[in-house]
Write a structure and sequence with these properties.
The complex is a heterodimer of chains A (about 525) and B (about 325). Chain A has about 525 residues and is α+β, with helices and mostly antiparallel strands. Helix content of chain A is about 40%, strand content about 15%. Chain A is globular. The model of chain A has no long low-confidence stretch (mean pLDDT about 90). Helices cover about 70% and strands about 0% of the residues of chain B. In chain B, helix 1 packs across helix 3 and helix 2 packs antiparallel against helix 9. Chain B is globular. Classes of the chains: A alpha+beta (about 525), B mainly alpha (about 325). The interface between A and B is medium-sized, with 34 and 31 residues.
C-alpha cells in the first residue's frame, strides 16, 4: 500500500457497526478516541462536512466523501457537555459549533471562536434545545466583539441589520482603507425563529409546515428534504408519481429563483432592463405554479408520504406551454446579457472565489459550481427521480460574479428541459401514502432516524429527523446551504472596492432566514 | 414700463425652470419604466413627492451643527439662481449679462461645497463615503467642464451663454469638429455631475454604491424636498445649457413680442422633453460602471474638451 493512500469514508467506517434504525445512510456512534482519530485524518481526506448539530447530549456530524459520494452520520456522546471541535479539520464547523453552544449548551473544546452566534442575548431562555434556563431578567444583549483591526488609516462602515432596500436583516461590518475593503465580517441571527425548538414534539403535519417556512424562497426544497428524511426514518416507500410531481415543483422553484436572481444581479449595476424582463419571466412561472399547484411558491405541497396535490392534464399542458413560452424569451435575455459590454465589465473578475475555499468549506450550489466544485445533490448522492434522468451538472472555474450568473443560466436551461422530460415520462398512480407511526397496531414501520440531502436552488439542503414512537418529532435539524456560502462571500470581497459588495452579495444571494433557523 | 417687462420676462424664466425641473425627473422615470415594460408612475409624481416631503417633519441628528440645517437652503438657492441664468425660452433677458458660464460653474461648485460639508457634518459612514466619491467625481468633472466652456467662448468670443447661443444661431458657425467634441464632452459631464447612470444610480437602494444619495442620506422632510428639487433643477440646468448652446433654434431673440416668446416657451418644453427621453433611453441600455472607472470616463471628457480647444487654435492659425 502506497503512503499516499487514503481510505474512502465507507472503507474507514467499515468496521464500525451502524446504529439500528437510521436511514438511508449509516450512523456510526464513535467514542472520543475514534472521534479524535477522525479529526486528525481530515486534512488529508476529501471528506466534506455536511452538517453538525446536537441531539440531547450527543453531537452529530454528517459527512460526505467527495470521491464517491458516500454519506455517513457520526455521533459522539459528549462528556460533561464538551466534545472535541471539528473546526481544525473543517473551518466550516466553527459557526455550526457556535450554534450548538447557543442552542444546546454543548461546548466544543479548542474551538477558536467562542462568541455566541445565533443568541444575541434577547431570547427569553438560554440553550432552548438543552437546559432551557431563563435568561437573567433585565439582562441587556451583550455587545458583539467584532474581530479587531490594528492599522493606521482604516475606517469602519457598519451596514444593517436595517437596510435601505427591502431585504432580509443582517449586519455587515466593513473595515476599509479608502474604498478598498480590508475585512468584512457578517453577523446574522436577526431572523431566528426558534424553528428547531418548535419542531420538538410537533406532529408530522405541523413539522412539515415549519420545515417549509425555514426559508420561503426554498420552501419546496426544505419540504422535500424534510419529507424524505421522515420517509427514511419510517421506512415508508412513496408512490413513484409523487417523486415525479415533487421534482416538477423543485425545478419550478429553481427556475423562478434563478430568474429573480439574474434580474436582481443586473439591477444592482443599474441595468434595469434585465431586471424588468426577468421579473416578467419569474412571474409567469409563479402564476403557472399557482394554477397547477394552488400556491405561487408551492408551499406545503410536498408532504411526508408524497405530495398534497396532483398535477392534472390541464396542469401538464399549462406547464408544457410555459416551457415553450419561456425558452425563446430567456434566450433573448441571455443574448442581451452577453452582448452588453458595460454589464460584462462589472461581472467579470468581480468577487472571485478561490477553488481551495470551496473545497475546504464544502460549498455547494452555484457558488461551488462556479468555482469548479461539481457537487449537486441531485446527482450525488442522488435521489428519485433524478437517478432515472440524464442531465449534466454545469461547472465553471472562474469563480467570479459572471460565472455565478452563467451557472444560473445553464441551470435554467437544464431545468426547463428536465420539466419537459418529467412531464413526458410521469408515471400514473396515487400521489400519497400514509406515514404510519411505529406504535400503531401491526404497522411494521420503524420509529427511527432519517436524513436527507436535497438540492435546492441555492445548494444542498440537509435535514435530519429523529422520531418518537408516537410519530411526533423528537429532534429535527435543518441545515441551509448558506452556512457554507456566507464565509466565502466575506473572503471574496476582501481587496475589492466597497461599491462592488452589493453586486457580489447578490450573486451569492445567501439566505438569512435559513441559517438563522 | 420696459423695465417691468424685462423683469417679468426674467422672473418668468426663474419660475419656468422651477416648474419644469420635477417634470424632467418625471419624464425620465416614465420613459425608463416604459422601456422596461413597466407602466411607471405618472410624470407628475415628483411634484407629489416634493409636496409630501415638504409636509413632513424633519428629523435631524443630535450632533448636527447649524451647517447641516442651512445647507439645503444654500444649495437650493445657488442652483436655482444658476438654473435661472441659463437661457431657456428667450435670449438677452435682463440678467443675461451675468449669465456667464464661469459664474454658473461657480454657483454649482458653491452648492456642491455646502452639500459635501453637510454630508460630513453628522459623521456617519455613508455621508463620508458619498462625499468622498462626489468630490472625486466633481474634481474631474470641473476641469472637463471648463475646457468645454473655453471652446465655446473662443468660438463666440464671449463667456456669456446668451451671446454664445446667439452666435450659434447665426450662419457663420458652420459644421465644426470642435463643436461636436464639446457637445460629447458636455453630455458626459452632464451625466457625471447629475449622478445619472452609468456614473451613479439615482434609483438605487444599495447604500454602499450610492454617491449623491449617500451624501444626503441623513436629510428628511422639507430639507430633503429642497435638496431633491435642487438636484432636479441642476439636471434641468444642464439640459437647458445643452439645448441652448447646441440646439438654439426657436429661442426668442432680444426684444421679441409676446407670441414669439410663447412659441419660445413651447419649443423649450419640447426640447427639454426630448432631451430627457434621450437620456432615459441611454440609461436603460447601460450598466453602472465601477467606481474607479468614472475617472477614465471623466478624463475622456476632459480630453475631448482639450482637443476641441486645440483644434480651434490650430484651425485659426491656418
Amino acid at each position: 500500500m502506497i503512503a499516499s493512500y487514503h481510505p474512502t469514508l465507507s472503507e474507514y467506517l467499515a468496521h464500525n457497526p451502524g446504529v439500528e434504525g437510521h436511514g438511508p445512510w449509516p450512523r456510526v456512534h464513535l467514542v472520543t478516541d475514534t472521534w479524535l482519530a477522525l479529526i486528525s485524518r481530515l486534512p488529508l481526506s476529501r471528506w466534506d462536512l455536511l452538517a453538525e448539530w446536537a441531539d440531547g447530549d450527543k453531537v452529530m456530524a454528517a459527512i460526505r466523501d467527495d470521491s464517491d459520494g458516500a454519506v455517513a452520520v457520526l455521533s459522539l456522546t459528549t462528556q460533561d457537555g464538551r466534545f472535541p471541535s471539528l473546526s481544525h479539520g473543517w473551518p466550516s464547523a466553527s459557526r455550526l459549533e457556535r450554534t450548538i453552544a447557543d442552542l444546546s449548551g454543548l461546548t466544543a473544546d479548542s474551538l477558536g471562536d467562542t462568541r455566541p452566534w445565533l443568541d444575541h442575548g434577547t431570547w427569553p431562555v438560554q440553550h432552548p434545545l438543552g437546559a432551557a434556563t431563563a435568561h437573567k431578567p433585565g439582562a441587556l444583549p451583550l455587545p458583539y466583539a467584532f474581530l479587531p483591526v490594528d492599522s493606521e488609516g482604516t475606517h469602519q462602515i457598519p451596514v444593517g441589520p436595517v437596510h435601505a432596500g427591502i431585504i432580509e436583516p443582517g449586519h455587515f461590518r466593513f473595515t476599509c482603507f479608502g474604498e478598498a475593503v480590508v475585512r468584512l465580517e457578517d453577523r446574522l441571527g436577526y431572523t431566528h425563529k426558534g424553528t428547531e425548538t418548535l419542531m420538538a414534539g410537533a406532529d408530522l403535519e405541523r413539522a412539515a409546515r415549519l420545515a417549509g417556512r425555514i426559508s420561503g424562497d426554498s420552501t419546496v426544497a426544505y419540504a422535500l428534504a424534510f419529507a424524505r428524511a421522515v420517509e427514511a426514518a419510517t421506512g415508508t416507500v412513496i408512490p413513484p408519481r409523487a417523486h415525479w410531481v415533487r421534482a416538477v415543483m423543485a425545478e419550478m422553484e429553481r427556475i423562478a429563483n434563478h430568474f429573480g436572481d439574474i434580474g436582481a444581479i443586473c439591477n444592482d449595476v443599474a441595468f434595469s432592463l434585465m431586471h424588468a424582463h426577468c421579473g416578467w419571466l419569474r412571474e409567469r412561472v409563479l402564476q403557472a405554479a399557482a394554477a397547477c399547484f394552488g400556491h405561487r411558491l408551492m408551499m406545503d405541497r410536498v408532504v411526508p408520504g408524497g405530495v398534497s396535490c396532483d398535477l392534472d392534464d390541464a396542469g401538464t399542458q399549462r406547464l408544457r406551454d410555459l416551457v415553450r413560452q419561456l425558452r425563446p424569451r430567456f434566450e433573448e435575455l441571455v443574448t442581451l446579457y452577453d452582448s452588453t459590454p458595460s454589464l460584462q465589465s462589472r461581472m467579470l473578475t468581480a468577487g472571485v472565489v478561490q477553488p481551495e475555499w470551496v473545497r475546504q468549506w464544502g460549498t455547494g450550489g452555484f457558488v461551488g459550481r462556479a468555482t469548479g466544485r461539481s457537487f449537486d445533490a441531485r446527482r450525488s448522492p442522488g435521489y428519485e427521480p433524478y437517478s432515472q434522468l440524464d442531465f449534466t451538472v454545469p461547472v465553471r472555474n472562474e469563480g467570479d460574479v459572471n460565472a455565478r450568473v452563467m451557472i444560473r443560466i445553464d441551470e435554467v436551461h437544464q431545468s426547463l428541459s428536465l420539466i419537459e422530460r418529467l412531464l413526458q415520462a410521469m408515471p400514473p398512480g396515487p400521489i400519497h401514502t400514509a406515514i404510519v407511526s411505529a406504535d400503531a397496531p401491526n404497522s411494521g414501520n420503524r420509529h427511527g432516524e432519517g436524513v436527507a440531502l436535497v438540492e435546492g436552488f441555492r445548494g444542498d439542503v440537509f435535514v435530519s429527523v429523529r422520531l418518537n414512537a408516537n410519530g411526533t418529532i423528537a429532534r429535527c435539524h435543518l441545515r441551509d446551504p448558506s452556512w457554507f456560502q456566507w464565509p466565502l462571500l466575506m473572503a471574496a470581497i476582501k481587496d475589492c472596492v466597497v461599491a462592488d459588495f452589493p453586486l457580489c452579495n447578490k450573486s451569492f444571494n445567501c439566505s438569512y432566514s435559513g441559517p438563522d433557523l | 414700463m420696459a423695465m417691468i417687462q424685462s423683469l417679468l420676462a426674467q422672473g418668468f424664466q426663474m419660475m419656468l425652470v422651477l416648474a419644469v425641473a420635477p417634470l424632467v425627473i418625471g419624464i425620465i422615470r416614465k420613459v425608463k419604466a416604459r422601456l422596461s415594460r413597466r407602466i411607471g408612475p405618472s410624470i407628475f409624481q415628483p411634484y407629489r413627492d416634493l409636496i409630501r416631503l415638504a409636509r413632513k417633519d424633519t428629523v435631524v441628528a443630535h450632533n448636527a451643527s447649524w451647517l447641516f440645517l442651512v445647507a439645503p437652503y444654500i444649495v437650493f438657492a445657488a442652483i436655482w439662481v444658476a438654473a435661472a441664468l441659463v437661457p431657456t425660452y428667450a435670449l438677452g433677458l435682463i440678467f443675461s449679462w451675468s449669465a456667464d458660464i464661469i459664474v454658473i460653474v461657480g454657483l454649482l461648485a458653491l452648492a456642491r461645497f455646502f452639500l459635501a460639508l453637510a454630508g460630513l457634518d453628522v459623521g456617519t459612514a455613508f455621508g463620508g463615503i458619498g462625499t468622498s466619491r462626489e468630490m472625486m467625481i466633481s474634481s474631474l468633472a470641473e476641469p472637463a467642464m471648463l475646457m468645454i466652456v473655453f471652446t465655446l467662448s473662443l468660438l463666440a468670443q464671449s463667456t456669456q451663454l446668451s451671446s454664445i447661443a446667439h452666435y450659434m444661431m447665426t450662419a457663420d458657425v458652420g459644421l465644426r469638429v470642435s463643436c461636436g467634441l464639446a457637445l460629447l464632452g458636455l453630455v458626459m459631464v452632464t451625466i457625471a455631475e447629475n449622478g445619472r447612470v452609468p456614473v451613479d444610480n439615482p434609483a438605487t437602494h444599495l447604500e454602499l454604491t450610492m454617491v449623491h444619495e449617500a451624501m444626503i442620506l441623513e436629510y428628511s422632510g422639507r430639507h430633503l424636498a429642497l435638496i431633491e428639487l435642487a438636484a432636479a433643477l441642476k439636471l434641468t440646468l444642464y439640459l437647458s445649457m445643452l439645448t441652448c448652446v447646441f440646439l438654439p433654434w426657436g429661442i426668442a431673440l432680444n426684444g421679441a413680442k409676446l407670441p414669439v416668446l410663447g412659441l419660445g416657451v413651447l419649443i423649450y418644453l419640447i426640447k427639454i422633453t426630448v432631451a430627457s427621453a434621450v437620456l432615459a433611453a441611454f440609461e436603460v441600455t447601460v450598466a453602472k460602471m465601477r467606481v474607479f472607472r468614472v475617472v477614465d470616463f471623466l478624463n475622456f471628457a476632459l480630453m475631448l474638451g482639450l482637443l476641441a480647444t486645440l483644434l480651434l487654435f490650430v484651425s485659426r492659425s491656418i
